[in-house]
Predict the structure of histidine kinase.
Amino acid sequence: MTPRSDSSGIRRPSWLIGLRARLMVAFLLVTLGSGMAAAGLSYVSARNALLDESQVQFLTQLRDQVADVVSRTEPASGGLRTVAEIADRLNVEGGVVVYADTAVGDMTTLDRVPARLRTSVRQEGRLAFQRTVESGEPFLYAGTPVTSDNGTPTGIEVYAAVSLAPQQQRIDALARQAAIVLSVAAVAAVVVALVAARSVLRPVRALGLAAARLGAGDLTTRLPVRGNDELAGLVRGFNDAAAGLEDSVTRLRREEANSRRFVADVSHELRTPLSAMTAVTDTLDEEAARLGGDGAAAAGVLSTETHRLAELVENLIEISRFDAGSAELHLREIDARELVERAIARRGWSDAVELRTAPGTGRSAVALVADPRRLDVVVANLVGNAVTHGAEPITVTVSDVPAARGENEVTISVHDDGPGMPPEVQQNVFGRFYKADASRGRSDGSGLGMAIAWENVRLHGGRIDLSSSPGEGTRFTVRLPRDPRDRPGQGPGDTLDDGAGRS
């Protein structure tokens, strides 16, 4: 499993990234750790208690048996007879009596008695014991010297052995029970962790979904506050932040709407006097030849600026229609190639621009259902941008993408061989009032042409693709559905004109 790095740089397995997984692992580790510690302590205590009980019982029995035998014999005399008498009266499991090189009793016990235990009995002269494991079976060995009534050593030693297998079986049973309890505790810990994670993560998940809705634009998103814990405080903080964001966005939208309304109102108010001014400048243009000198130059400047102002006002009015959602399409069946050719010729760009058709299209008509006026504006803005800011050769290519390819669209591509656009310009080229060179004078245009072109294409259900690299020129590609009425979401304002239309 591929590990991932968190913000601290620590690499964690991907399955530990989720909060639910981490809560479950934490619960499980705590439960297993505490359970193993408790089980270990219980196991050690029970084991020691069982072994100590068996050991004390065995040693007490051996000591009492030896004392009883000694009281009924005369061990001080020693000899084989005394050893045999003690062995005969000794009633201890695995007992053997040793005197010098003579031994009477269970000889297998004598063979297995640890040398260390025999040395301890002889040197220390007191009861001693030792636990060993033979072939996987635990044994307890004990030995004690035999003394006379007055405490004098007789040289006689008594050894005995007992198997601790029954005690070990009980200890093993305790270990199995502890393992079972630990397993049950682990399962219970997982269940508790799931329940706890569910209760903890439910508000967190709800908070995440609410944040997603808020990010998607639903500024009315709020969450109910339950309790007074940390999560409730987090929810309250989210609600406060959402309310503040809603107030700010509402205020900004209101101000933006007021600004747009103001621009639209001013543009409409300027339209009438500008119409009169345009008529006057047209008259001045006709009389400019008789004015001569500075008068003719002044008349030319006045005419140029008046027409530019009129164009700006018309663009502002057009933008305001897009913002208000009142822009309408007056659709008609047209020849896209013919429309592009007429748009280029009308503006005097025929010598600077080469019109092409895609291979296979030829010079036949490229059928398209569109608003001729709006499409003319799109072509004029894109080609005008190439003429003004690009370099020759400038080519406009009209392509007819057949329905057999599944696209059924018409494309109009405008390419120039200019210096190209840097990435920051490409990101903003369709923005309103944007100029790639901030130092360009106002005579270079209003900065609304590309925005209007974008809105007109979008209104048709199409898009404009931009491809540009510094030093490699720029290409704008308009992609239009062959018939916008076939696209879902077209409004009732889209009408099909059966007349000549506007171009």
User: Anything to note?
Assistant: Residues 182 and 337 are 82 Å apart (CA to CA). DSSP finds eleven helices and 15 strands in the chain.
